[in-house]
Design goal:
The complex is a heterodimer of chains A (288) and B (446). With 288 residues, chain A is α+β, with helices and mostly antiparallel strands. Helices cover 36% and strands 13% of the residues of chain A. The chains are: A alpha+beta (288), B mainly alpha (446).
Chain lengths: 288, 446
């Protein structure tokens, strides 16, 4: 090996090492390095009366079109979140009567959207909210990745935004609680530390016989979420997916991401080796 | 080879005012040459032109509308189906179709197989153009286009994202392919010294390019790993990245076979005897490789099917669709390739290649829109609008026009200038460690 070859090899080695370092760092996406515990909201669907005050408060807090909450006809057809409705109340008819369910971003502990974002426009904040930022490219990979189909994009604008509930991050920072929780007249929403909310949820389940279906949705689903739900009926009857598993979504890509530094380091060395071996063979063939 | 290349390079890059002026004049000259070259060669009113030109003009108009009015202008992408044909077809299908570039770079530059040398240039040109145009499809699909460079500028680096990796790899691989192809441009312009410098970088670019390709071909599949629960269980598996990588091998090979058989008619006057004489043997070799890689893919599919107890999902339309894809568009062309090679029939191989390409289209569309959210009723599903189809076709047609432009001017299919041929021979022997005269003699004796 000549000096030049050695230099070339070591430079390419260093280059791939640097690159792999870039791709390889912090593969466990999502979880913010929290100095404090995540905050969350407990939604007790047995207490919800379907008044939609939360929708109104949300629209007012975020400058969205003000909904007419006296109009009960919205419940007749299935309604989903969209760019101008960050939270919607849905109605389900079950064997235990009508159940109202408030939907919004679940604020996962390890969000798929955060792991998916290639410019870190989606962030899991220390306080618990998952927020969106203006440096977004509009690739909409977060929408493909989110297990709850929460992020919505403003398609009709030349410079659209991803719109979704941010757990009133701007209010949390000045010590207020989320607008929807503040507006709820029936105490169906409860804001607090996630651990305390879980405690309270279980107290409610075990403190009453038959009032609740014995599962807190979001305790372990997709690795845990900031919004936790209580229900009187099994969750699939009120529009929740119960087949998502308990593994945090970013972990589905870690296997691939771990292979990146390995391939980037080993492949070039391997390929260069083959090149040299076949070159020798060619030479022997020619010399023969 | 390196010795010569670098010595020339050092001289070339020496900074001095005089050289700079010469260089600038040279650049001006290049622009003039390029403008002159814009004049079409050959007939203007060919069927191809007559069909594609109106589509391209309509497409350009639609693209401009898209830029100014937002993504919903003439498009069916929705909150349920955020990715339409630009990502789901142009990128997802176009990238494996361009896989021939890295597969052949591996065969020719890493395995040092001279047999496939005649087809390396058109393949790399095709690959490079494909990436440029599919990157433009991504650009078109972005909802906030002016932020396009953010992942490269560090506003901010989302290193945990598979898409971040894919974006960087696209960029780097385009550069690698440009370097791989650049000696052809230098030959065309008659830039001897520059050609030497550029040619000396080919091996490095290939090694790097193959590593990048391995990862981003697999990465396109890894994008769907977090769509668990949205992709039908017959298609969703932990092995999606591996499946995407293996299928990019036979996808690329099939495109090379089909492209070759079309080019042989269209660009016959540009091809030298070396290309035409070796054509059949090359196609047989490619067919063999395609048969093997298809079989490996099929085998892996079967393993995954058994492991995931796939039969429990087989009932209903999606099950039939899955069987059609695996048996009709993977196993069938695999057998056809095998038979074609055994009978030395280029026609059978060509048909198998077309079916394989169809299979890749079906497979990738399954991941991006058909098996994706299979539970959504047909009325709410994503179906491209005619505007989206026209833009998709525009992207492909413009790419073909540029391919034709380059092939009609540069030495892509043979017709290498004598001086470049001489230099290449010299550099090969220099690398092998003996002089031209000596090596030439021994080579001639064989």
């Amino acid at each position: 090996m000549t000096r030049r070859e050695f230099l070339k090899l070591s430079i390419s080695g260093m280059a791939s090492f640097t690159l792999s370092g870039m791709f390889g760092s912090r593969l466990e996406a999502g979880e913010a390095r929290a100095k404090r515990e995540f905050m969350g909201v407990l939604v007790d669907t047995t207490r919800c009366i379907g008044c939609r005050s939360c929708e109104l408060a949300c629209a007012e807090a975020h400058g969205l079109p003000i909904p007419n909450i006296d109009d009960a006809s919205v419940f007749s057809s299935p309604r989903n979140m969209d760019p101008s409705h960050w939270t919607v109340v849905q109605r389900y008819k079950t064997e235990k009567g009508e159940i109202f369910v408030k939907r919004q971003c679940m604020h996962c502990n390890q969000p798929a959207c955060v792991a998916a974002c290639l410019v870190r426009a989606m962030k899991k904040r220390e306080e618990g909210p998952v927020t969106w930022d203006e440096n977004c490219m509009g690739c909409r990979y977060c929408m493909v990745s989110c297990p709850f189909d929460v992020p919505k994009f403003e398609y009709d604008k030349a410079f659209g935004r991803i719109m979704k509930c941010n757990m009133c991050y701007e209010r949390l920072r000045i010590g207020k609680i989320p607008a929807c929780v503040e507006a709820c007249p029936s105490e169906a929403l409860l804001f607090g530390r996630r651990r305390d909310l879980l405690h309270e949820a279980k107290r409610r389940i075990y403190g009453s016989t038959g009032r609740y279906f014995p599962h807190v949705y979001g305790e372990t689903d997709v690795g845990g979420t900031g919004y936790l739900y209580l229900s009187a009926v099994p969750f699939e009857r009120i529009g929740f997916r119960t087949d998502l598993g308990t593994k945090a979504y970013p972990e589905y890509t870690t296997g691939f991401l771990y292979s990146v530094p390995i391939v980037l380091i080993l492949w070039p060395a391997f390929l260069t080796g083959i090149h040299h071996l076949t070159k020798e063979k060619k030479r022997k063939e020619v010399e023969r | 080879m390196m010795e010569i290349g670098e010595r020339a390079g050092r001289g070339y890059l020496l900074p001095s005012f005089g050289r700079l002026v010469v260089f600038l004049l040279y650049c001006a000259g290049l622009v003039l040459v390029f403008l002159k070259e814009l004049k079409p060669k050959g007939k203007v009113f060919t069927p191809f032109n007559v069909i594609t030109l109106p589509v391209i003009l309509t497409g350009i108009f639609l693209v401009l509308r898209h830029l100014f009015e937002g993504l919903s202008a003439g498009s069916n992408v929705s909150q349920e189906f955020p990715w339409g044909v630009f990502i789901g077809f142009n990128v997802m299908v176009g990238v494996p179709f361009a896989g021939g570039a890295y597969v052949l770079a591996f065969v020719v530059y890493i395995l040092n197989s001279e047999k496939y040398h005649p087809i390396i240039r058109p393949t790399i040109l095709n690959g490079f153009l494909a990436y440029v145009f599919y990157a433009s499809a991504i650009f078109l699909d972005l909802g906030r286009k002016w932020n396009m460079l953010n992942p490269f500028l560090g506003r901010e680096f989302g290193v945990s994202s598979v898409l971040f990796l894919v974006a960087w790899h696209f960029l780097l691989y385009m550069i690698a392919q440009l370097i791989e192809f650049s000696p052809v441009v230098a030959e065309w312009l008659g830039l001897r010294r520059l050609r030497k410098v550029l040619a000396s970088m080919t091996l490095g670019a290939c090694v790097f390019g193959i590593a990048l390709s391995t990862l981003h071909q697999a990465g396109l599949g890894a994008l769907f790993m977090m769509a668990k629960g949205k992709i039908h269980p017959l298609w969703y598996t932990e092995f999606i990245p591996v499946l995407f990588f293996i299928s990019s091998i036979f996808a690329g090979l099939s495109v090379v076979i089909v492209e070759g058989s079309i080019s042989k008619r269209v660009f016959r006057d540009r091809m030298n005897d070396e290309y035409l004489n070796s054509y059949e043997e090359i196609v047989l070799g490619l067919g063999r490789a395609a048969a093997v890689s298809l079989f490996v893919y099929f085998f892996l599919k079967v393993l995954i099917f058994i492991h995931g107890q796939g039969w429990t999902y087989l009932e209903g339309g999606m099950g039939l669709w899955f069987l059609f894809e695996v048996l009709g568009l993977v196993l069938l062309p695999c057998i056809m390739f095998y038979e074609g090679v055994k009978r030395r029939s280029v026609n059978v191989i060509r048909t198998a290649a077309v079916i394989t390409m169809l299979g890749i289209i079906v497979n990738r569309l399954n991941y991006s829109m058909i098996a994706y959210k299979w539970y959504v009723p047909l009325s709410a599903r994503y179906v491209p609008t005619w505007q989206e189809v026209v833009i998709t076709l525009t992207i492909i047609f413009v790419q073909l026009w540029i391919f034709r432009f380059v092939v009609n001017r540069m030495p892509v299919y043979g017709e290498v200038p004598e001086w470049a041929r001489e230099e290449k021979r010299e550099s090969v022997f220099a690398e092998l460690g003996f002089t031209l005269a000596e090596g030439g003699e021994r080579y001639a004796k064989r």
